[in-house]
Amino acid sequence: MADLIEEMRYINKDEDMYGTCDKAASICKYLELKNNKELLEKNNIIAIYGQWGSGKSCLMKNIEQDIDKTKFNTIWFDTWKYEKDDNLAVSLFKYIAKDNFVEKIKEKGNRFIRNAMGILVSISKSVEFNVKDVITLKPGDGIKEAQEQQEKYNEYLESNKPLWEKMQEFEDEFREIKFGGKKLVVFLDDLDRCESENIISLISSIKLLLSANPNIIFIIGIDRDAVTLALQNKYQNDYNKADEYLEKIFTINFEVPKQNNNDSIKKYIEEITDLEFSSCDLIMDFLKEIKFDNPRHIKKIFRKYYGMKNYLKENQIDVSNVAVVIFILYIIILANFQREEYKNLFIEKRANLYKDVMFKTISQNRYRDQICFFFSTEDY
User: What is the pLDDT of residue 201?
Assistant: First the structure.
């Protein structure tokens, strides 16, 4: 069963539990719309906002696969995978270039490459290049020596230009690079898993330098809270500055879909638990009631349940009873996401809180039933 495997992959309609297909299709149409061409050239850094595990990667993978290949080329850069490189921005630049414009860079010569690398490193370290007056001409020296000194001085000035001048030169040349009449879409995944400094330096490098080329569109999947925290650390916990920074960087942004496809989720639960399709409503209501709605977390607890289901059967646990299944899922959730509460199950006296747990089905209305929990609290 594909959904039992923890991986980032393309989602098709039949297995789409969270509206990924429809969301990806709408974003593709947005990118492909002719009237948006100028807008995207001026605002070519797009954020896909969503918490860790909410499905950002799968959404971007669907966009990557579904986008019109006659208009767009795509590449995928896993920021977390390459984070250990000396400079993540340099790695991204070289990764984009390797199959797309490396030959055009070579045509421009080593100076262009050195210039690009120097700027990216400088941005990441927030260091500016400053010219120091270290070469002087002595009065009375001969013309030959004066010429030699002048050549050295010119060479020094060329190699020690201020950062703004180098950036301007790079942008002028970089923005002219084209991709055979197509746009290049660069997907950056797992940025929110990186260290705070790497998050900030990479976003800054893209905004200040790499976005200069209007033929490249960057789509970055990030956890807004994680990036805001990184920015708050940089700006001394000033939330407003962090929020303003994000708004300026990502003028175009999308959220991962939050509307669940109930039938697909119920089908998934049915396949995992072997319960009746109608009983899966009770499990969904239980997860909703405890606000357990992160897609990755949901799949994690069902993977664990699936792995122990046969063991439970062999030990005469009635896993055909939806109430029993819900209670087991509850214990799995505690064990994986509420460790302190889970530990309390095994502490003397506190464990009595759970010893008389009962399940009772009460009629909410004539159409469906609800599961209620009753706890003994006399020893709590």
Answer: 83
